[in-house]
Design brief:
Order of helices and strands: HEEEHEEEEEEHH
Number of strands: 9
Number of helices: 4
CATH class of the largest domain: Alpha Beta
CATH superfamily of the largest domain: Cytochrome P460
Largest sheet: 5 strands, antiparallel
Number of domains: 2
Strand order of the largest sheet: 2-3-4-7-8
Structural class: alpha+beta
Distance between the termini: 43 Å
Bound molecules: heme C
Helix content: 25-40%
Length: 198
């Protein structure tokens, strides 16, 4: 290789490194802007603007199918912030700083004994009032005792929700996720149709 070629190769490598670094820095900056915010004493601040995040899915466990005793009879609307969604689509993994937010949404009261009602589209369950928020945050350093995820409850009631929340004890949340989740503490099988959509 002569000197000119060598210089050319070096320049190309330098350019590639700059682009790669720029890319990493950009996504880190984006994550910092849209990722979790913490109080000085380590509580998670309730994110804002989450209705503009990516909607992943909505498991539903109505009273009618749980002997009238569903713990969470609402729709479980799951959202993720766009930076983490894009990273997942690129790599198949949740990046550091991922926030998965589950907002509960009651079904409208129905006349039928199973709580269902009839609308123009047919008989079924239809979304009503918002009724609570649970959040999971990936931060492997902060939550190394619970497989790298922290779990937070901002209230199981109508808004306004709590503005900050301390991490829930392991037995309250992380234990069940560790035992039953699809991968990396998340029930991603329910969101795969959206996560893996091309
Ligand atoms: C007994 C098991 C169990 C416990 C305890 C539990 N979860 Fe979950 N969680 C689930 C299941 C199953 C799903 C997905 C299906 C659904 O929502 O019905 C889920 C979904 C979630 C999601 C959406 C992302 C995902 O992994 O699917 C969040 C966020 C979440 N849970 C937070 C919490 C928090 C916070 C607590 C504690 C206050 C908690 N969970 C306690 C079973 C559990």
């Amino acid at each position: 290789m002569n000197l000119t070629n060598l210089r050319g190769t070096a320049a190309t490598l330098a350019l590639a490194a700059t682009i790669a670094l720029g890319y990493a820095t950009t996504s880190q900056a984006q994550m910092q802007a849209s990722g979790p915010q913490w109080t000085a004493d380590g509580q998670l601040v309730l994110p804002t603007g989450y209705h503009q995040w990516v909607f992943l899915g909505s498991p539903l466990t109505p009273h009618a199918l749980n002997d009238g005793k569903a713990g969470f009879p609402e729709y479980h609307n799951v959202y993720v912030h766009p930076v983490a969604f894009a990273a997942y689509q690129r790599t198949g993994r949740w990046p550091e700083g991922t926030i998965l937010l589950k907002e509960l949404q009651l079904t409208l009261d129905g006349r039928a004994s199973d709580g269902s009602r009839v609308e123009a589209s047919g008989r079924g369950f239809f979304p009503g009032a918002r009724n609570g928020i649970d959040i999971a945050v990936k931060d492997t350093a902060r939550f190394k005792d619970t497989n790298g995820w922290g779990f937070f409850n901002f209230g199981h009631h109508a808004p306004p929700y709590a503005k900050t929340a301390a991490a829930a004890p392991k037995a309250a949340c992380a234990g069940c996720h560790a035992q039953n989740a699809t991968a990396d503490m998340v029930f991603s099988k329910f969101y795969a149709p959206i996560l893996e959509a091309k």
